[in-house]
Every structure is written in structure tokens, then in C-alpha cells.
Design goal:
The protein has 178 residues and is mostly beta strands. The chain contains no helices and eleven strands.
Length: 178
């Protein structure tokens, strides 16, 4: 996401978002982007779509699923496109009004490095799994602790100066909203 326009880009970009909430348990969302993030001299059109759903099975248990796909011209004016996509499936359990746990499974593929280029030059195609623990410290302050595993068939990560096919992380964050 750019916070300022690309220099020497005269083409406006467009986006849409449609949400359907038939009841208090289900949210379906469809978002699109059509445009470019390059100057006119190297313009490659980009098309992107995000589709997700959130379903509350109960006051404590929720499910999430998403599928995103993007296409960008290989060259200016070309009819050939580089494609990237991801899918995500997740679950959230609320232990208490201020404490919850989330699990997520995902897959991301960007073989032509449109969005993600790897240090090793291998195409990005990885599976992931994560587990998080959230505490609402204040009504507008959230503390998260998360463990995440990523794994692919190619060596797309660097670890201690060598190429490896997997990555593990353990992070914590604080989010504030107003």
C-alpha cells in the first residue's frame, strides 16, 4: 500500500469492497484492485481480488477462510501475466471476553516474485501454520504472542547464512486502535 502517488504515473487505480452480513454470525467480503504501481514508462497492469468469510459458530468459537489472487502483466502491453495467490483457514476461540486463542493454516505462492522475492532466488511457495494468544489489556489495546512455522519444498529462507526451506518465529506485539 502506497501512501503517496508513484512519480510519473498518470493512471489512477481503482478498488472496490463489497460486504454481505446476512446476520450477526456471518460476514462475506469481496475486495478488488485494478491499476499499477509503476511509472507510465514501465506500466504493468495489476489485477487483485480478495475474498474472505468469517462465521461465528458460537459466542466463543469463530471460523475464517480467505482466498486471494493477483495477476500482473509480465511486460508493458503484454497479454501474458504473472500470477500469485494465497489461501487461509483459521479458527478463533474466546476463553474470556479479554482472552482468546487463534490458529491459522495458509499457503502462499508467488513463483515470479511479483510481491515477494526471496534472498535465494527460488520461487516463493510455502505452507504456514500459526498459533496466537491475545489479551485485551484495555478496550483499545491488544497484546499478542504468536508462534509461526513456514515450510516449502525450495530453500527460500536464509538462516545463519545458509539457504533453508523452513522458518520458525516467535513474536509478541502490542496493537493500539482509536
Amino acid at each position: 500500500q502506497r501512501m503517496k502517488p508513484v512519480e510519473q504515473n498518470s493512471l489512477p487505480s481503482f478498488g472496490t469492497q463489497l460486504q454481505y452480513k446476512p446476520n450477526g454470525k456471518l460476514v462475506l467480503n469481496s475486495s478488488t484492485f485494478i491499476g499499477t504501481d509503476k511509472p507510465d514508462s514501465a506500466r504493468k497492469m495489476r489485477y487483485y481480488h480478495d475474498l474472505y468469510g468469517i462465521y461465528k459458530l458460537s459466542a466463543k468459537l469463530g471460523l475464517q477462510a480467505a482466498f486471494d489472487i493477483g495477476a500482473e502483466q509480465k511486460e508493458k502491453g503484454s497479454n501474458a501475466y504473472n500470477i500469485w495467490y494465497t489461501w487461509v483457514a483459521g479458527m478463533t476461540y474466546n476463553w474470556h471476553k479479554r482472552i482468546s486463542t487463534g490458529m491459522r493454516l495458509e499457503y502462499y505462492q508467488d513463483k515470479n516474485a511479483v510481491i515477494v522475492s526471496t534472498e535465494t532466488g527460488a520461487p516463493m511457495a510455502v505452507y504456514g501454520a500459526s498459533l496466537n494468544f491475545d489479551i485485551v489489556v484495555l478496550k483499545n489495546l491488544l497484546w499478542r504472542v504468536e508462534g509461526r512455522l513456514l515450510s516449502g519444498k525450495d530453500d527460500v529462507f536464509l538462516e545463519d547464512g545458509r539457504s533453508v526451506s523452513g522458518n520458525q518465529s516467535f513474536t509478541t506485539s502490542i496493537a493500539f486502535h482509536f
